[in-house]
Design goal:
By secondary structure, the protein is α+β, with helices and mostly antiparallel strands. The chain has two domains: 72 residues, no CATH class; 110 residues, Alpha-Beta Complex (Aspartate Aminotransferase, domain 1), CATH 3.90.1150. It contains six helices and six strands. Strands 3-4-6-5 form a four-stranded antiparallel beta sheet, covered by helices on one side. The radius of gyration is 22 Å and the shape is elongated.
């Protein structure tokens, strides 16, 4: 849910009914059981078979509302906004000669940019950026250690954009990165 403006702790499982019917649940409890006997268990019908325990009602309501908002904005509009913002951010970040940018640096790059500050561990950059400016970014291997190996680094700083970000946010980030760089000198 949180990847779609919704709350954390909720998501959606999408799959072909044929395969979902063949799958065995990995969590147990609540309404996902149809019958239990000493001979075995019969699972409930879809979708209940995969809904173990007490449902996250608040999360479901929040996710439904988030989907309504995204539909109202339009996914094509969101993608175009992200594309323009990513292009702007790449242009601005390339002006900072103390950064190394990883990954595509053209129109194929969408919404996520990874970079490192030369000679500074990404965790230090992220902590200082937050402490000095209040700007929060991600740092680490981002569950992509083979990619980090390919990049020749153990970790990167990572920024991402969504519907609520504007060019002003990129400008503040760049000013914040300059402040971190100056502080470290």
């Amino acid at each position: 849910g949180h990847k779609m403006l919704g709350p954390t702790g909720i998501g959606v499982l999408y799959g072909k009914r044929k395969y979902l019917n063949e799958m065995t649940p990995f969590l147990f409890g609540g309404e996902m059981i149809d019958k239990v006997s000493t001979d075995g268990t019969t699972f409930n019908v879809l979708p209940y078979k995969f809904e173990a325990g007490t449902p996250n009602v608040d999360g479901a309501v929040g996710l439904a509302k988030a989907i309504e908002i995204l539909e109202r904005i339009g996914m094509d509009n969101i993608q175009e906004h992200e594309k323009q913002l990513t292009s702007y951010a790449l242009k601005k970040l390339k002006e900072l000669d103390f950064l190394e940018i990883f990954g595509p640096q053209d129109e194929t790059q969408q919404s996520i940019i990874s970079f490192n500050m030369k000679g500074v561990h990404p965790h230090d950059v992220a902590h200082l950026l937050n402490d000095l400016t209040g700007i929060a970014i991600r740092s680490g291997h981002h569950c992509a250690q083979p990619l980090m190996k390919e990049f020749g680094t153990s970790a990167t700083c990572r920024i991402s954009f969504y519907v609520y970000n504007e060019e002003e946010d990129v400008d503040k980030l760049c000013e914040g990165l300059k402040k971190v760089w100056e502080w470290l000198k």
